[in-house]
Amino acid sequence: MQMIYKYSLHRKSIKHICPRCAKKRFVRYVDNESNQYLSDKVGRCDREQNCGHHYTPKFFFNDNQEEYKPILSNTAPWNSIQQDASFHKNEELATSLCNYDKNNFVKFLKSKFDINKVNEMMQQYKIGTQSNKFYGTIFWQIDFLNKVKGGKIINYDNLGKRTKYINWVHAVNIKQKKIRNFNLEQCLFGLHLMKSSSKTIAIVESEKTACVMTMLFDKYLWMATGSLGGLNQKKIAPLKNRTIILYPDLGESINNHTPYSKWKKKCDEFKKKGFNIKISDLLEQNSTYNDRKKGLDISDYFIENLNTKPTKIIANNNKKILNMYKKNRKIKTLIDVFDLTNINGNTITF
Questions:
Q1: Contacts of residue 155, Cβ cutoff 8 Å, sequence gap at least 6
Q2: Long-range residue pairs from 259-262, CB within 8 A, at least 24 positions apart, any chain
Q3: pLDDT at 209
Q4: For the whole model, what pTM was predicted?
Q5: What burial class does residue 203 get, using C-beta atoms within 10 Å of its C-beta: 0-12 exposed, 13-18 middle, 19+ buried?
Q6: Which NCBIfam families match (predicted)?
C-alpha cells in the first residue's frame, strides 16, 4: 500500500522570499487535504549550495509543541492527492520562439560563439523568450514523447549572468488567470533529443551549461536537471538503457557535503538499480578554492578559454599545447575531462 503524505512541497513551484537568504527561491509546504500553505516559514530554499534553508513540517510542529501526523487518513479524498501531469500546448511553445534580439541570454551567446551554432542549438532545445518587458529566457522541458511538461523562465543580464528572477510559464499563466491550475511534473531539460541521438548523455545542473556545452562539445548529448537537487531516478528513468555521465557544479562544502558528493551518492544508488552511469570528478580534483567559491561549472572553464579553442587542439606536437597550459592551467582539466586529442588524433600528454 502506498503511503500518502499530508504535507509536501508545493508542486506548482511558486517561489517566495526565503526567510534566511531573502532571495525569492523559497518553496513552501502545503497541506494536501486543504491545499493551503502550512506556514509562510515552512519550506525549502532551492539555493542548496548558497543557502540550504529547509524548515520541515516536522520541525514546525515540534517547535510549536503540536502533534505531527505526516500520513493522511484513509478517508482523505484521493483526487486531492493524486493528479495527472499537466502539459503546455505546442502552440504556446511555438509563440515563444521569437524576440531573440531582446533576449539577453541569446545575445550573450551570439557575442561569444558562432551565430550559426547558436541558432542551431536554440532550434534543438526550443529556447523561448518571455513576452514581457524583461524578455526572460524560457527553457522548455519536453519529454521523450515530445510533450511539453514545463517552461522555466530565467532572466539574464547583458553579461550572461543569471538575475534573481526565476519563474515558470504556468505560474505566470495562473497569476494572469489564463489557467486555473497546473500540475507540474518535471523532466530533464533536453530529454526530447534522446530519440534522435545515440550519443553518451552528459547531465549537468543548469540549462545554460547544457546549451553552451552542446555548441562546444557535441560528442555528448547534453541534458540538465535544473538544480543540484533536481537529479532523481524518476527524471533519468527514460535513460535506463543509455550511457550517462554526470558533471556536477563545483561548490563549497556545506555540512560536509559538496555538489559532487551529493551526486556521487545518487550515482552509486542508480548503479545498483541497473543504470549505466558514472560521475566525473576531474573538476572536483583540479579546482581551486576560488573555483569552488564561485560555484563554477564545466561550461565556465570553456567560456573563460574560448580563445584557445580547447575542443579542437590545433597543434602537431605537444609543445604548443604545453605553452597554452603554462598560460592557463585549466586547459589540462578540459583535456582530461573530455579525452581531447591533438589534430592528428594522438593523446595529449604533459
A1: 104, 134, 136, 137, 162, 163, 164, 165, 166
A2: 259/49, 259/205, 259/228, 260/284, 262/228
A3: 96
A4: 0.73
A5: buried
A6: PG0870_Nterm
170's grid cell? 504556468
Grid coordinates standing for 41? 516559514
Q: Which domains are delineated in the chain?
A: 7-72 (no CATH), 90-175 (no CATH), 191-297 (3.40.1360), 305-350 (no CATH)
Residue 108's DSSP bridge partners are none
By mean pLDDT, which of 8-12, 110-114, 232-236 is the weakest? 8-12
Beta bridge partners, 71, equal 5
Residue 98 vs residues 52, 95, 161: alpha-carbon distances, Å: 36, 7, 21
Instruction: Supply the mean pLDDT for the chain.
Output: 83
Q: Cα 34 from chain centroid?
A: 31
Q: With CA atoms as reference, report the closest residue to 287 among 332, 334, 250.
A: 250
